[in-house]
Amino acid sequence: METKERTSLWAKAWYKFRRDRIGMVSLGVVLLYLVIALGVWLGLWGQDWSSIEGPMWAPPGPEHWLGTNIIGQDIFERAIYSTRTAFDVGMVVAILSTLLGGLLGALSGYFANSWVDELILWLMGVLDAIPFYLFVAALAYALQGNPYAMHIAMIATFWTTTSRLVRGEVIKLKNFEFVEAARAIGLPQRLIIFRHITPNTFHILLVQATIVFVSAIKSEVILSFLGLGITHGVSWGLMIAESTQEVQAGHFSNFVTASTFLFVLVMAFNMFSDSLQDALDPKKVSA
Amino acid sequence: MSLRNTRLLFLLCLPLLLVACSDGPDTRGQKIYRPSLGGAPTSLDPVQSATVYANHVVVNVYDTLYAYKYLKRPYELKPNLAEGMPEVSEDGLTYIIRIQPDVHFIDDPAFPDGKGREVTAEDFVYSMKRHFDPKSRSQGNWLWAGKIRGMEEWKKAGADYAQEVEGLLALDRYTVQIRLTRPFPQLVHTLAQGFSAIVPHEAVDYYGREFSVHPVGSGPFRLQTFDSVRAVLVRNSGFRREPISLEFEGYDEAVHGKYGIAEIEGRIPPLVDRLEIHFIKESLSRWNSFTKGDEIQYATIPKELLDEVLAKKQPEVKLKPAYARRYFMSSGLENGFVHTDFNMKDPLIGYNEDKEREKRNHALRCAIRYAWDWAERNRTFYNDMGFVFPGIIPPVVPEYDPHASREALEHNPDKGRRLLEENGWTPENLPTLTLGGVASVDSRQMFEQFRGWLLRIGYPKEKINFDAYASFGDYNRAVKQAKIMIIGMGWGLDYPDAENTLQLFYGPNGSPGSNASNFNDPEYNRLYEKSSVMQPSLERTQIFRRMNEIVLDSCVTISGLSRKNIFLWHKDVVAFPDQSIVGGFYFRYVDVKEADR
Predict the structure, then answer these.
(1) Rounded to an integer, what distance in angstroms lies between the CA atom of residue B57 and that of residue B66?
(2) Which of A56, A231, A248 sits opposite B466 (nearest CB)?
(3) Domain coordinates in residue numbering, chain A
(4) ipTM for the predicted complex
(5) By the 8 A CB rule, do B475 and B434 touch?
(6) How many domains does chain B have?
(7) Does A50 touch chain B if contact means CB atoms closer than 8 Å?
(8) pLDDT at residue B375 is higher than 60
(9) Which residue of B has its CA nearest to A241?
(10) pTM attached to this predicted model
(11) CATH topology of domain A2-49+72-286
């Protein structure tokens, strides 16, 4: 009898992803950024971002690769450190908002058309109706200088999309035979939801996490530019905000450096996310 | 609907469409002056007009008893609503001031039948009492606190406006009597400030809290609209007719002739129909609006563009020909200075119950001062055009000492580091420092520079924070509540006397008063009390200089720098702008050659 080797969805997805050249290149770029961020976390580089080491607006040179800003800080050091800020914000927001979205989406989907579902849908509707930047400003004001006001605002708004997607998937899954079987043997609902149904939404959560990661980085830059973002450290948004005045005086290094770092990471992450989505799409994977 | 009906509906709606397309009221044929300021007022109630931005609006919608002559320098007082200068008793304790009759408040729904009534001496008395009424939340009562007889008792007795104050009386409809507890030579100067502007009680009662955005005064303009972006003021058609005498106002052909001011001689202020005061925080946005041609007509030069705009910075400021052809310019040191204070109420850095710790805190403040690099600050943020001086007596007042020791300005990180070590400070036990400021690029970069200097004396990076506030109003409120540990501040002189800067460190003026550092030194307080009743003299100057030394020895402030002001205005504007002592008072004398088209 001929036996067919069983391959998991994850193995198939990885196989497919490896064959996607754009996906692999973008993953490489993202990993490079991650290495930079890890180096900053471990104190290997980017530690002198706040030191005043050079003259005002020094041009790029051997001592300051990308020049200095108005107060003599090294622009390259600041851009490197900002990578850590981007990953800090991106990871915290992506992980927490995905967890929250997954949890509430699963509950909403499993108890569809019950009061639990109604409540969660109402909450999502309310949060989606508030303009994001106004919400962040209001939250920052309410939290009176809390350094995590921006993170909280992002998590509080970004989970809704994930939740809607997971809800739809769970509504579909809960009628499958394996769930019927779990119910038939008397498993508690808690186990059915979190042990049997939720693991089958992981591919959605993974893709959503990458999308939220990019959104969080972009939002952080915009919020920092507006003065609503990070309160400690430096970020590409702050560098761009600084550069608005410098550009008029003919000093472009701050602007070009921060924009390039941001552009490359966002671009790479977007492409990585697209490739991941293709690789994890059950229809395409099983094909 | 028939075609005929459709056409009819279209015709009926046409006026609505046209109104929707227009950008505000029709101002064609009006003379409009559009100045700009670097911040917006948070309140237009005179008792809360603590910022230069609020003052610019307040002195134009309200009347003060006195004002400064438009062009005279050094500054000289003149009567405004008062008929003449006050009669002062020989002991300097009693002032009699007569106000002009037949001056009316603007028409407003606050008055019976909406008709503005006559301004009387009682209105002045009422306006001054408001400063001592806790409900008014005055930010200017420090000016007169403890100086007017019976005022403290009136306040303690419940601030009942029906009760008289012994030292503040309306002798008749047009005569005010002020009796002081001790001589106060600067009293008349304080009566030229927005804080002392005269308000009608009807408007305060009618608008309640909304009074802060509904000014009802007797000034040359009346407020039309006000928000965080701009204030629009229109001519008060009922304003008293007082022809301009340039000689009286201090006109000097050599100084003012080039600005075409001679042509306003004999005319009756206000000279423009409409005043649009734009509040633009970002200097480059302000500059872009100014150079565009049809927007604001008055601005300062952003620091990033000084090299592009100026042909010469020192010692004389000169515009490049391309700019000189298009704009008028005036320049000079500001009537004030910037300084950074330590909040002495904060036990981490100021006064402490543990006297040993208090001593170490003193060393810590001095070490931070050694880290401060004035030359770098001046170069980075003031284009090397600021004037750095030791202490709190700026160079524009006669008491300034050009020979004073400059040790307090010394930038010596090694000395700072040694001082920390000698006093037992280590990176582990140093307190976390928080510098307050407005959430702007400049403030943030100033903080970053400050942090960079502190790193040089061994201060751990993670122990230096920035506390950003959305607006200057929010920041100022936090300062008044003594919430900020290290306070970056600028002070514009209210009147041209060093007493006005020395009161910034007088103990009883602590938060929410003007003493943001909450410095409270017995010797300093005693000297202030002694000198504040003295007329200008050599003895008074010596006392002032001693007080300056006490502030420096206490390391309570890192001070100071007087900025060079450069004002530019369009050539079709006939004016001599001055933002500091005169404040917005000059607006009534501004003329614009061409009306709006």
Answers:
(1) 16
(2) A231
(3) 2-49+72-286
(4) 0.81
(5) no
(6) 1
(7) yes
(8) yes
(9) B441
(10) 0.77
(11) MetI-like fold (1.10.3720)
